[in-house]
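Researcher: We're teaching a course module on how sequence relates to structure. For the next exercise, students receive a sequence and then see the predicted structure as C-alpha cells, so they can try to spot secondary structure elements on their own. Here is the exercise chain.
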Amino acid sequence: MNACACIVGWHFPQEFFESIRSISGLEVFIISHQPRSTVPQWLFHTIPEKQVFFEKNSGYDWGAYQQFIDKRIWQNYDTIFFLHDDVLLKDKSLFINCEDLIHSKKGICIVGNGRVTSKRNWPLTHIHSYAHSKWKPPEWNFEHEVVRGSFWATSNISLERIGNLEIYWDRCGLLGIGAGNLSLRATCGKVQDTLGKDAMVFLSDIYRISPYLVELVRGEDIHDRPTTQLSMRISSKIIFYISKMLMTRYMNSGATQKQALAWAMEKIFVLV
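Model: And here is the predicted structure for the students to work with:
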C-alpha cells in the first residue's frame, strides 16, 4: 500500500494515533487547528514532528483538508485518506480494503464510511449551500450524494481531477462549525459532477457506522449539539437568506447574467 492519511488534529486521542501509526504502508500527516502549546508531547514521539502542521483554524474540517491539499504532499501517494481524530477505528483492514475498492473503480471514486442519507436533490432544497462555491450546480434537478468529513478516501487521480475543495472559510466566524455543511455539499456536488454519477461509494448503508469505523460527533458518540449563540443563529439566517436569493437568481438566469452573479458571489464570500 502506498497511501497517506490527512488527519484533522483537534482531540488528539493517544490510542487512535498509536493505532493508525502502526499501519504498514500508510504515512500519517496531521493538520492541527489547535495551537502547538495545547498539543500533547507524546504526539511527537508517535508522529514525526515534520509531519504535523499547525494551520489557522479556518474552514473547519474541510478547510483543514484543503490546507493539506495545498501542500501537494499527497501527489507522492496512490491513495489519500482524510479523517477526523475523533473516530473509533474498529478494524485496521479499513485502509487496504478502501484501496482495493478504489482500484476496482480505476481510481475514479470517493469512498465514504456509512452512507449519510438517500437524499440526493440537494440543489433543489439547499441551494444556498453553493453560493460561496466556484462550482455551481448545472441545473436545478442535478443530484448528488454527500460524504461526511469524518472520513473519506480517494486516489491521487481523482484528487487531481477535482482540484480545490469548495470551502466556506467562515473568516468572520459568523456561522460556526455548521459552515462545514456548506463546504460538504458544494464539494460533493463538484465531485459527482467531475467524476460521474457513480463516483461515491460507501462501506456501509448505516449512518456513521461501518464494520471498520465509527464516526463520532464532535468527540463523543452522541447526537446532541451544543447550544448555538443567538448572534450566530441570526447571522446564519441572514447569510443563508442572501445566499438563497443570489443562487435562485443565478439558477434561473442566462449565461451572461450567471457570469455576473458568479463574480458578485465570489467577491461577497471571499470576505465572510
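Model: If you want an answer key for the exercise: The chain has one domain: 3-269. The chain is about 35% helix and 15% strand.
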